[in-house]
Amino acid sequence: MLGPVILAASRSDRMRRFISAAPGTKQVVDRFIAGEGVDDVVPIVVDACGRGLEVTLDVVGEDITTPEQAAAARDAYLELIARLKDLGLGTKAEMSVKLSMFGQALEGGHELALANVRPVVEAAAAIGTTVTLDAEDHTTLDSMFAIHEELRKDFPQTGCVIQAYLFRTEDDARRLAAAGSRVRIVKGAYKEPASVAYQDKGEIDKAYVRILKVLMEGDGYPMIGSHDPRLISISQELARRAGRKLDEYEFQMLYGIRSDEHVRLAAEGHRMRVYTAYGTDWYGYFMRRLAEKPANLLFFARSVLTKG
After folding, report:
1. Cα separation, 9 vs 291, whole angstroms
2. CB 155 within 8 A of CB 121
3. Is the pLDDT of residue 4 over 70?
4. In 3D, which of 180, 169, 173 has the Cα closest to residue 130?
5. How does pLDDT run across 63-106, given as a tens digit for each residue?
6. Are 214 and 170 in contact (CB under 8 A)?
C-alpha cells in the first residue's frame, strides 16, 4: 500500500527538499492549499460563503520546536480572527487547530498548548464562531481530549475530531456524543501501528459507520468529514433514521477536492463546510492529502514530470 510509504515520507527532511524543488509541486500544492497568508485566503472565504458554503480554516504547520514558534502560531490565528471580524464572516467561518502547533510536543507541552489555544478560542467566541481541535497521532489524543474538556467549561461550543481507524474511537464517540458537543469524524491520516488502529480500508469504513451511528443517535452535533460518496449516502440515511433535521449535522470536505459536491450538498439544504488550509509550512499537510487518495498521488506524479 502506498499510503503508509507516503506518510513516512511526510516526516523526511530529504523528501521535503526533493518535493519542494520538483517543477510541478506548486501546481499541485495550489490545489490543496488556499495560499500562504491571510490576504490569500480571505477572498476564498468570501467566495465560498457567497455560494452557500461555510468554512473551517487551518493555518498549516506542525514542526514546532520552540515556545516562540508556538506563540507565533497562536498569533497567526488571532490575526485571522481579526480579519474575519472586520469582514463580518464570523458566523460562517470557524477555525481548526492542531495542538502540536501550539507547543504540545515541547517540554510542559500540555500546559503550553492550553495556554496558547485558549486566547484563540476566546477571540473566536467573541466574533460568534468557534474552534475545533484536530486529532493527530494516537500518542497525543489523551492530551487533546483533556484540553478539549477544559476549554468546554467556558466555551462549550469547542469541537474536537475523532478518527475511525483507531480502536479506541468507538468508546471516545460514546463519551463525546452528549448535548452541546461538536464532533468531527474522519477516517484518519496518520501512520499508526496495527496495535492501535485498523489497517484494512474495509475495516476502517465499517468502523466509520459504527461510530457515526453513535454520534447520530447521541445528543451532540456530528460533523461528517469524508469525500466518499458511499459514506455520504450512509450518513444521510443514519441522520434520517435518527430524526435529525438538516441543520443538526454537517458535512465537511477539503478545499480542492470534489468541489462540485460541496455545492450540490449545499443546494440540497445541507450544511456544507470546506476545510481550507493555508500557510507556508504546507509539506506535512500536503503529503497526508496524497496518502489519503491514490488519485491525488497520480495527479502529483504527472505534474512533477512537467516543466511547471
Report:
1. 10
2. yes
3. no
4. 180
5. 789 999 999 999 999 999 999 999 888 888 999 999 999 999 99
6. yes
Q: Which residues pair with 184 in a beta bridge?
A: 161, 223
Angle at 27 between CA 135 and CA 10, to 5 degrees: 35
Query: Which DSSP symbol is given to 145?
Result: H
Give tens-digit pLDDT for 219-255: 999 999 999 999 999 999 999 999 999 999 999 999 9
Instruction: Write out the DSSP string of 158-223.
Output: -EEEEETTBTTHHHHHHHH-STT-EEEEE---S---TTTB--SHHHHHHHHHHHHHHHHHSSSEEE
Would you say 29 and 287 are in contact if contact means Cβ atoms under 8 Å apart? no
Catalytic positions: 134, 184
Q: What is the pLDDT of residue 305?
A: 47
* Beta strands in the chain, from DSSP E residues, in sequence order: 54-59, 93-97, 131-133, 159-163, 182-186, 221-225, 250-254, 271-278
Query: Bridge-partner residues for 186, per DSSP?
Result: 163
